[in-house]
Amino acid sequence: MVGSEKKSLVFAYYVTGHGFGHATRVVEVIRHLIQAGHEVHVVTGAPDYVYTIETQSPGLFIRKVLLDCGAVQADALTVDRLASLEKYIQTAVLPRDSILATEVEWLKSVKADLVISDVVPVACRAAADAGIRAVCCTNFSWDFIYADYVMAAGYHNRSIIWQIAEDYSHCEFVIRLPGYCPMPAFRDVIDVPLVVRRLHKTREKVRKELGILDSQKVLIYNFGGQPAGWKLKKEYLPEGWICLVCGSSEDQEMPSNFIKLPKDFYTPDAIAASDVMLGKVGYGTTSEALAYKVPLVFVRRDYFNEEPFLRNMIEHYQAGVEMIRRDLLTGHWAPYIERAITLKPCYDGGVNGGEVAARILQDTAMGKRHASHGLSGARRLGDAIVLGYQLQRITGKDIVIPEWYSLAQNELSSRTQLPNKEVLDNSSLTRESDYFAILHGDHQGLPDTLGFVKSLAEIQSTCSPQNNKKLQTHEHLAAGAMFNWEEEIFVSRAPGRLDVMGGIADYSGSLVLQMPTREACHVAIQRNHPSKHKLWKHAQVRQPKEGPTAVLQIVSFGSELGNRGPTFDMDLSDFVEDGQPITYEKAYNYFARDPAQKWAAYVAGTILVLMTELGIRFEDSISILVSSGVPEGKGVSSSAAIEVATMTAVAAAHGLNIDPRHLALLCQKVENHIVGAPCGVMDQMASACGEATKLLAMVCQPAEVLGLVDIPPTIRFWGIDSGIRHSVGGSDYKSVRVGAFMGRKIIKSAASVELHYSLSNISSPQQINGFNPDNADEDGKNLLETEASLDYLCNLSAHRYEASYATRLPESLSGQEFVEKYLDHDDSVTTIDKERIYAVRAPTRHPIYENFRVKAFKALLSAAPSNYQLSALGELMYQCHFSYSACGLGSDGTDRLVNLVQEMQHSKSSESEGGTLFGAKITGGGSGGTVCIIGRNCLRSNEQLLEIRRRYKTATGFSPYVFEGSSPGAAKFGHLKIRLRSSSKE
């Protein structure tokens, strides 16, 4: 209790619209303020009963207003990042001016002495505009949470982060709760104990009221009122257990060992009366589990950046067990519950944070100053810097950093660097790799490979019984626990690719030119007989009593930094049905049902494809560690690198000799049919068959490798990231592909009709240019026959397209109209949406002309070095770029980069020097991602590239990642077979 004070104060308490968790902790602070005789006005979107169940007082006023939306959840465990940003824009950005005007007027009308925010950004700015002091009370801030969402949506949403952080900067200080995230936008920090709701009833009384015997074990099922319709079954619980269900719908049926709690049942009482809690990680759940020493079985909630910090706190106090989502949904609960009941939660900190916070707020409202202005810059960063910005600066997650974040960025830069940009000491790495004997293969001196082998040595070392280090990541622990370090491990490497020319024309059969990137994915794999396989605990429990069966276990390094589940496991028998491999459709649904682990389709899918296409039977268990330095969402084929590296490693471990071309085609099946992305084959081919400092020339019909094209020593290619996330699974890429296949079908149909009339010597109503049936010769008829059976669009020449078909193609066409006239577009990896309007002419024209451009580009590379050569090559790239835009696959960021290259190319300084940069184009699937740049191989080109990077950052706030250099493809690298030296037989 705060205690009696002379003056009654007025507090305006703003509560975020994200769930009830914030409201439930706010009530504890409010209760102490009101007990001290103060007046509290709560601005909230939560129901009244959340507040009144704890405090019924004339000093409590509830104003129902929603000023932010938090994170939008597709279900209890899935955060929709793009929908969250869109809703925030609609809720808080577009009506911002009217919100500020309304809130300023309201704050003045209630004569507020202090504004408290948990943690509504605009409330801090409204307080400043009204001339009222403001304080936040929270364990996270929305600028940190939304940072990851902005990277998924594209840097053009960066202003959201800037505005939120700027709003928070008007707050005097933050009352910081345990389990906090980095919050560097705040000027100062005061830490308080856990804010926990008090109990109303004893454990014994609650159990008696619910009819639970003292001898019975109780599980409380608490997912924040979002059970999402999951069906509960009696066999989910261990024998003799009872389950209390919170927040279930009125019509949801319960088995006999499940008890549905009334909607207004006071949850803290139920938690304290239970033996184990099953739920998601949120502040309210975590604080009450720790305070009442109830072990928590939690299911990971992806893409909510608060979670890792709370999860670390739970595990630090030995109060948590993580359950994989698949086991939650299939009812495989018993091993987790039985493990949790053995835990001894040891949280011994204070639980009176509500009282402490209320006292601080009261003192502040009465004029006390807590902020230490002289140290505010350093103190507001505190211990948030390193972990917070490691989270944001991992591969593919660069983030716009406002000015007040610059100290954090500078401090971090001395500690961490982006993968593959490090200056590595090869001799040091080689010494570290001496932990392993290389029984087969050659690391070829590649720094990233040496670094990966070193990381394996570190995992083995830190996970050994002799090592007592406490700070080990989940990824390291999981990897260390699944490998038998006395046995052989196979290592593969596959690079990403820079799309120099060809791009989306690959699925139409074009010639393409692709360069392997320096960035690559490494995979370590080990196979063991099921009886010798080291299984994670929950996988052990799944083993049948009659004997062990083969299990696949995967660890993905870097996942936790992006708040994604780092592990996946499955019984390999899940891929078999009635003695045969399951269909690709069933596999797609298998992985798609769990968004938290959909990433595993890229890795595990290689196993099913080998089973289906080559008839391979996998009798042994398999452990796979994936570590990729190829940035995601940049348009450089991070997915192909993972697929190729994985399949190469699987083949090596099982003695399979797969031709590199065939392996790439198999990997394409993984992406097309199991992941569900309709990409062409050039990505996998470049990753598998490419070589360093050369362009792989390939005709995609379906995958004929023409050979390797030397890059002249006078020419250099770079890639520069726009910061706009790209995905070949995106709707734009798919719709353009559908439009191209529609165009092909229309051309074939037109040629077939004309051929019919020419064979019948009848004039057609819409005669194709140049063919009059009265004088049509055999060559003309043969040409029509060829076009009537056109297998790839790129086999139609540009002049034939212009002369005979360009005007016959519609600019656009609805799916319904196309299906009614042509039935199908004959593409096995996309479907037509009848309700959608598809562009047809531009997507059809692009691959026909692109094929010509790539042929010309290839020929020009062998020409004598000159400015004319470079200018012509650059012009072809520019034409490709603008053709992408005509298809609808451009973006503001990639256009800006291309324009910057043009400005640099035509600047007076470049012209006087004979030119350095000569062309640029968007790459891969378009709609963001990376721009490929061609220039003279000289120092001045690098200087101009850095200037473009600087100008782009000035204009957008985003500092682009630059791809430079190349490395061998998976086939050229081969594989390593390694064994710990202590156990090698040398």
UniProtKB/TrEMBL annotation:
BP GO terms, sorted: carbohydrate metabolic process
Entry annotated with the keyword DNA-binding: no
Keyword check for Nucleotide-binding: yes
Ranges where the Galactokinase N-terminal domain occurs: 486-527
Swiss-Prot/TrEMBL keywords: ATP-binding, Nucleotide-binding
One Gene Ontology MF term: ATP binding
Span of domain GHMP kinase N-terminal: 602-690
PANTHER family membership: GALACTOKINASE, SLR1395 PROTEIN
Record's protein name: L-arabinokinase
